[in-house]
Amino acid sequence: MTTKTNITVYSEGTPNGLKIHIALEELGLQYKLVKIDMFKNEQKEPWFTEINPNGRIPAITDKTADGVELKILESGAILEYLVATYDKNHLISYPYGTKEHWETISWLMWQMGGLGPMMGQSNFFTRSAVGVHQYSIDRYVNESRRLLRVLDGHLAKKGCNFVVGDRLTIADIAIWPWVSATTSKSAAPGDPCAAKLDAAAASSISSRVASLSSSLAATRTTATPTAVRTSTSSAGAGAARPLQTAFAAACVLCGVALS
């Protein structure tokens, strides 16, 4: 069963974009998807900067009960908005003010302020920067490794593959797309950034990547994407495909390979 909404998602298959699709699918929300072609710099075009002045994805629009349009940017803010507005049964959150609620927010901010930016810069300087910037590579790769060790230690101490409590939350959803790319097995063959970070993806993290996929699969027997797809390209557009998990649905919407 899905819930109709006025949500439009402006996104692409990046780690930050994938967060939003996973959350929407887990909550069973219908939404319209506008895929942004970042190779054409569509995120910098005037029509999009009216939605997000920062010119980055993801962003969403929605309407309040009295019809006021909302424009929300930054993936962490979008995740918080979705659970505050639509997760009344706490499928991917905990009740406001509880210990688990604040732990969820803490780890969400940890990802937003630390893991994501550091891994993003690691990726840039090992894959995209012109020339070799060894100081920058060492700086961002080593900090990414440190942050991964923090997560690995936390998960090992908990003895559970969820960051907070005993179930999936927006903290897991925010962290997963970044962590899943840290091992060579998860990344494209020969990916230099993944190879540099691979040593930091210790047992607890590796177990978590597999376990979270299994946990998502266990929550769905038959799932179909709930997006009304509006793509800037024809690839993948059209009828909804039958999928096994909400995660798989999000991957298809973003054009991300599951293997």
Automatic annotation (TrEMBL):
Residues 4-90 form the GST N-terminal domain. It holds the Pfam family GST_N. Belongs to the GST superfamily. Residues 97-226 form the GST C-terminal domain. It comes from Thermothielavioides terrestris. Signal peptide: none annotated. This is C9ecbefd-7a2c-4fbd-9a45-4c88ff98766a. PANTHER family: GLUTATHIONE S-TRANSFERASE GSTA, GLUTATHIONE S-TRANSFERASE-RELATED. It comes from the Eukaryota.
